[in-house]
Write a structure and sequence with these properties.
alpha/beta; disordered N terminus; eleven-stranded mixed β-sheet
């Protein structure tokens, strides 16, 4: 997700900066987790800007454990991770959320997380549990895909693209905006999607052609989606002129949920042949001041209460297998059954070289 997580898509509704979300119960409450650790009643979650959760869910966590949650938002997922690497050993919080499968090895190689097997991990989809040492807990999945502005393509009497190869056609010249693969998880996910689709021997030639076809690169998802993409509410206000954007398969429900009045059809669509599966994780930060609170929060993040709250707040898919999806999410989002993927070990071995190659091809 991002997918960020997504992102991801919740930057339309989520506030930026530091937000303290207090649960119910006063400072004297002592839930099941409050008697352990430092005695602090606050647990700090460091995340990317697209993290969002309902007040009622945070209150449920406080009622259950005695902890209040402070959320420290730190930019795009890549930027947030880089800040934690710079402060490793003396972290700014207790739990980090938002590192995904494209960047996970960077976090693990830097020793950011302390191993902890969250309660309820047996209910989480097995294919998301990629770290055998339990240093991170899977929280959500999302599919990074090109989104398109339906109104633009209808007015132009032009069929929207469906696949990676379609994006190279002259009809779509100067229409696509994507994020910087060196600092944005959606941008990196899109790069990996092209590698999965074109092969390690073909992705460089593909990006040369995509650059020649006028792809625009910006720093992160927020800028790409809400400032450059003509199909989003933010993009329409900004008079954006790019009808194709790298975002998420779950982005169309955002445009429905926050519209007034809500349309019967989402104004944006998904090019389903341009997707890459993203898994987002949370982990207990090494050196956390409130280790007990951090563990309690990780347990809670894979509870059905939290998992069923995510779809309409972060527009990502739950990893708990029996979590129920809301109707709006299933009606207007796209379900991608078999998106291209790259094995985690291959990402670990090649990510930096792929990014450097991409930068030299696209940014110079």
């Amino acid at each position: 997700m991002n997918t960020t997580t997504k992102y991801a898509a919740t930057a339309l509704a989520a506030a930026l900066g530091v937000t303290v979300l207090a649960g119910c119960g006063d400072d004297g409450s002592t839930g099941s987790g409050a008697s352990k650790g430092t005695g602090s009643k606050t647990v700090t979650l460091v995340s990317h800007d697209s993290f969002n959760v309902s007040d009622k869910v945070l209150k449920a966590f406080t009622k259950e454990t005695g902890y209040k949650v402070e959320i420290l938002k730190s930019g795009d997922a890549g930027a947030a991770l880089n800040q934690e690497i710079l402060t490793k050993g003396s972290p700014r919080g207790d739990v980090f959320f938002g590192v995904d499968n494209t960047l996970l090895s960077r976090a693990l190689d830097n020793g950011l997380f302390t191993a902890y097997e969250a309660k309820g991990l047996d209910t989480v989809a097995a294919d998301t549990q990629t770290d055998g040492k339990k240093r991170v807990t899977p929280v959500d999945t999302g599919d990074i895909c090109v989104n398109y502005d339906k109104k633009y393509f209808t007015h132009k009497n032009l069929a929207p693209p469906k696949t990676f190869d379609d994006l190279l056609k002259p009809a779509y010249k100067n229409l696509l905006v994507t994020e910087n693969a060196a600092g944005s998880s959606p941008g990196l996910g899109f790069l990996l999607g092209t590698i999965a689709a074109q092969g390690e021997d073909g992705y460089e030639a593909y990006w040369k052609k995509l650059k020649a076809n006028g792809v625009k690169v910006v720093d992160g998802w927020e800028q790409a989606y809400n400032e450059e993409f003509s199909g989003s509410a933010g993009g329409r206000k900004a008079n954006a002129d790019r009808p194709l954007v790298v975002s998420y398969a779950s982005s169309p429900p955002v445009e429905v949920l926050y519209a007034d009045p809500q349309p019967k059809e989402a104004p944006t669509g998904v090019a389903t042949g341009t997707c890459f599966r993203q898994t987002e994780y949370a982990g207990l930060l090494t050196g956390a001041k409130n280790e007990a609170g951090g563990k309690a929060l990780l347990d809670f993040m894979i509870s059905k209460t939290f998992q069923e709250d995510m779809p309409l707040n972060m527009f990502v898919n739950p990893v708990v297998e029996d979590a129920t999806l809301p109707e709006l999410f299933t009606k207007f989002g796209e379900k991608i059954d078999t998106p291209p993927t790259v094995a985690p070990e291959k990402i670990t071995a090649n990510r930096e070289q792929w990014i450097q190659s991409w930068q030299s091809l696209v940014l110079k």
